[in-house]
Known about the structure:
With 388 residues, the protein is α/β, with parallel strands linked by helices.
Amino acid sequence: FHVQQAEKLRKDLLLQAQAVQEVSNIYLFHTFIFVFHDLLTLYLFGKNSSWIMFLEEGTRVKLHKLHEVLKKFDRRKEWFLGKPLHDEESTIIHHYAFSENPAAFEYPDFSAGWALSISLVNSLTSKIEEEPLKSDFTIDLKHEVALYIWEDGKGPRLTGVAELCTLPEDKPRAQYCATTVSSHSPVCGQPVKSDNIFVAVKTCKKFHSDRVPVVKKTWAKRASLLEYYSDYADPSIPTIDLGVPNTERGHCGKTFAILRRFLSSHVPKTDWLLIVDDDTLISLPRLQALLSCYDSSELVCLGERYGYGLGQGGYSYITGGGGMVFSREAVVQLLVSGCKCYSNDAPDDMVLGMCLNALRVPVTHSPLFHQVHTHTHTHTHTHTFYLI
């Protein structure tokens, strides 16, 4: 699905380039090995250009208008252009950066596209060779890229460009935009039937009376096949004890027990497995629509992608708090490979990421899965939302 979307965008850009008689080099990241640290690669590709423009597969571009916008900026200077975002409060995914005034720092909305002048790329290339990215974790790339470019005030801040938009392309105001978005919620055919998705909810005894009732009163009503997995068998819910003790940190033992149960005769055979925590909120109808874009016979691992040690040959993984979706074939290959936990309290999402990396199975990122803090009148909870 994503390859097809990227190829569609590439062809559209090439047609526009011919129409305006401009030469554009277009590279698809999935066709070559690339990490952000390797800006030298981009510099070599674009050394005869003035700008490097980064797009997401859902970004739509009016090339003539984009050229008009870029001509306003002196290409010999260091420019970092985009649609600015800022935090209204400090957030865990940004490591509580600028906690005293989160709005003081702006970073680009990747879906609107963002641009670097080749002069800035040249400077960043020299910097990266001397000082690689320090953070082990890559959680929100757009914020981390902006921080790296800013370099504690030594480098340029993001310059906001009004013509870089995230409006749907069919909106009247989009006529003033150089970029728009095709859709925030892709639909590729008939939604996957609810009885073809098996839902596994991870919980533990201390949350049986707190979190589980919220799940049952809200999104779980839409599930055809759902089981609650705990360290205690409570017939009133009911919960299933997988024989794995509750752990305060990682839940690797419990997650791998769920994977094994999914392939067993104890549950109905389905094409898709959704694993969520007991404080996750999910829109199952939207998930059913989203899964219409994927082939369950392929190795599909879908969710909000994080990275660990990517600058030193690390791996990507799906953060468990945002929900993890696996095709049956992906679960089969994971278990056949011999992948297992090094301890019951190991971080399940990261262990799965290591295993998938060893199998050369890509982790598919979707911004429609997201992990955030939410606030009630009396408490702050680490709830997670599935947003489409």
